[in-house]
Amino acid sequence: MTADIPFESEAGGDLAALLRLASTGCDDAWRRVIGLYARRVHAMARSRCRDDDLAEEITQSVFVTVSAKLTGAGQGAYEEQGRFESWLFRITMNRIRDEMRRRKRQASTADPSTFGHIAAGSEPDRAAPEDLQALRNALNELTESEREVVEMRHHGQMSFKLIAETLKQPIGTVLARHHRALKRMKETLESRRGVTS
Description:
Elements: H1 15-23, H2 27-49, H3 52-72, H4 84-105, H5 112-120, H6 130-140, H7 144-154, H8 160-167, H9 171-193
Helix pairs in contact: 1-2, 1-3, 2-3, 2-4, 3-4, 4-8, 6-9, 7-9, 8-9
């Protein structure tokens, strides 16, 4: 099914109309929805799992869920109430958490090359720049709630208002957590480089 899509651009379009059209099964509308959000969903998943294939699986799973929910409401019955993004990213964070829990329960591979990369502090077949690795290490030292806010803000490109809605927390809490997380990361990076503030 194709139709004239009312959505002109990310900044100026009518998301509600686009989602209504997508809920009718319009392929062009779905391509636009995926085009608008897939990169951000993938970036959030990739940040946490650091595996492109797994991040792609999570991204696909998220959009399968979104599609089922929107089209399950009835042909064109979806009514956008300004909460699509928070809903989408809540689904994303839940999928990421579920996958990371599942992976923790699984036994690790006994491949000797994997152990060599773990000991060296890098990923198999990937040579991350020194600064990127230092940033990842600092991110890993954050609490789960701090890391979640940083990933949503910087990988998911979400506004603080949207993060607050997604996490169902006051915006002041989200802002404070983000500020505290960035400060801790800066201190960690500086201490590892021997820089005094």
